[in-house]
Amino acid sequence: MRKERSNKLRQQAEQQLIQRDHQIKSLKQVGLAKLAHELAVHQVELEIQNEELRQARTAAEEARDRYLDLYDFAPVGYFTVNENARIVEANLAALKLLNIETRLNLVKSHFTKFVVPEESDRFHFYQREVLEIETKQTLEIKMQRSNGDPFDAHLIAVKAGLGMIRISVIDITDRKKMEESLVKAKEELETKVLDRTKELSKSEENYRRIVETANEGIWITDPEGNVLFINDKITEMLGYSKEEIIGHVGLDFMAEGQKESVFRIRKVLGNRIRLSDELQFYHKDGSSVWVLANASPLFENGKHTRNLYMMTDITERKKNEEELKDIPRRILQAQETERKAIGYELHDEVGQSLTYLALLLDKMTRLPAENIKGVISESRQVNSKVLGQVRNLLSNLQPVKLEHLGLIITLQQYFSDFSAKTGIKVDFKFSGDWDELPYNLSLVVYRICQEALTNIARYSGVKKASIHLRKGTKKISLQIEDKGIGFDLGFYKRDASGLIGMRERARMVGGTLKVESAPGKGTRIEAEIPLKKLT
Predict the structure, then answer these.
(1) pTM > 0.70: yes or no
(2) Of the four, 17, 285, 389, 495, which is 20 to 30 A from 335 by CA?
(3) What fold characterizes domain 399-534?
(4) What is the pLDDT at residue 262?
């Protein structure tokens, strides 16, 4: 039905274009050439505004590119490798890790060029395993930089398409040295026990000092998983005291679903094999803690008596990985939402007005000259309405007034328009010196206010909202509050609201944003943005 209507409108427009020259001649005959000139000028103005819309879209695409820069500046080396083990893509951390200046010197190189020769077969087997199993696989391997310097690396790889895998590479040289140092210290200690009992106490104290001051968490269990020893780093990572952990089963402190991984690790350790895996624990406060656990079996007189776990906290890395995975989806979702909103506004408002204007012009051609003044007046009103609609659309895409009028005046005008449109009164209070505020910070504050008021109009059911804006010497504070129906934060889904967008905008300039709400208690949004980020 929509397609038939679009075709019909197009046919009417083409017929009117054929008649336009005749209309202008008729208008000249009755002294209305000036009107035709004005309509032509308005047409040019609409074309200019269309160009501004295109520029706004370009700005949105540039914002997308800035998100993608996060990949390049990640703290872990990322590689994309094809089925022939050639490097297809790498980030800046990967270049630094291998001591290479430019991507041109790295792309198309064999990944095995940076693996020590005696380990190349292990890597090829690992690559085939990733492609065949299609699940995340880990490997510790000896690699070398472009100048030949060796280093120990921890690889995490997943399949990324036909014949392609993505690999994250972490330099674990320092950790391996520490592990070797601990193993060496333990072996020395056991030797001295056989020789001199008196020296055992001193050596054991040195060993314990190394363990307690280590930057890695040390977790020792018996073969059944009962915790025998932890160092201070473990208590710092998990929030429990040593007394709360030692003597309990390690699984008691781990997330659900880890049982299978732990049993697999125990079985491998019983076969005198060392391995590493990512494990999820729970902090005492209930939050999730991810660790990279490097496990080694310990033997006494040939009998497997204990398991040693060296644990590195990788919680932040896991969060960063999840955010990087989510960036393409957020970009596409934002683009589609913006395009859909623009499309609806153009179709429902601008499109209908332009169609009506075309019908009026067609009507003018069929009326006697003495009867068209009323139609001309109505055409002008419709044309002015179209211009206003396009200006409003441009203002929503890019608030140009911010650059010329500043944040406070632009907000006051927006609040006035919002109240007129929705019937919701905005109680706006501000304090501080707002002169010379950088545009990017003004835009963040404006967008947060805009999104918050949109949510209030849609969901709160109130007729009044309050906004307090304060600028201090070190930060900007923004509070937005309504006394509406509120919502349960426990059931809040981040993809179902604009709250995630507001939080991301604040975070991009080094700020924070928190939301307080409960059913029947209204909603309160508080944002703080440091001014030092702008210097």
Answers:
(1) no
(2) 389
(3) Heat Shock Protein 90 (3.30.565)
(4) 86
Higher pLDDT, 496 or 466: 466
71 C-beta neighbours (distance < 10 Å), count: 14
In contact, 88 and 107? CB cutoff 8 Å:
yes
Q: CB of 375 within 8 A of CB of 363?
A: yes
Helices (H) then strands (E): counts for the chain: 16, 15
Same fold, 77-171 and 399-534: no
What does the domain layout of the chain look like in residue ranges?
2-69+339-393, 77-171, 180-319, 399-534
Reported confidence tier of residue 134, pLDDT bands at 50, 70, 90: confident
Distance (Å) of CA 531 to CA 5, 93, 527: 53, 30, 13
> Packing angle between helix 407-422 and helix 439-455, nearest 10 degrees?
20
Sign of CA dihedral 417, 422, 427, 433: negative
What is the chain's length? 535
Q: Does domain 77-171 have CATH number 2.40.50.140?
A: no
Whether the pLDDT of residue 476 is over 90: the answer is yes
Q: Give SS3 for 289.
A: strand
CA atoms within 13 A on the CB side of 115: 23
Task: Return the CATH class of domain 180-319.
Answer: alpha beta
First to last CA, the chain: 56
pLDDT score of 32? 62
Phi, psi angles (nearest 5°) of residue 258: -90, -10
| CA–CA separation, 442 and 403 (whole Å) | 9
Q: Return d(Cα 297, Cα 279) in angstroms, integer.
A: 18
Say whether pLDDT at 206 is over 70. Answer: no
The more confident residue out of 34 and 293 is 293
Please, is 165 exposed, middle or buried when counting C-beta atoms within 10 Å of its C-beta (0-12, 13-18, 19+)? buried
